[in-house]
Specification:
The structure is a single chain. The protein is mainly α and 132 residues long. It is built from five helices and no strands.
Amino acid sequence: MELRSDNKIRYARWIFLAAGTYGLLVLVPGFFFENELAVRAPPAITHPEFYYGFGGAVTLWQIVFFFIATDPIRFRPLVALSILEKFSFFSVCLVLFLTGRLAPGAPLLGGAIDALWMVLFAIAWIRIRDRS
């Protein structure tokens, strides 16, 4: 029974470590390419406080994922919030796409990737609820 419990915890640790690593690799470069974004996806950012504020908030969540990875049982309540964090972007992208306000491309792909993380987080949350 103990081995089964260890595998459940190991799964959660790996998922959250992978999510935090992936998130930082994707998000941190955005802090240095505001002008490039304006060229590739006009118009230019007119309110950088929103751009960098959003970037800071989502980057902070990647750090939360690393904390969860250290002890998924202890930080299980944060796992539930992490599921909601992923749902928030996925659901916005889905609604915007279905209403014709989001074209296929990077934002839609990002929403789909967040949906995948959401499912993986939910599996981790379910697996660590009972240590037996």
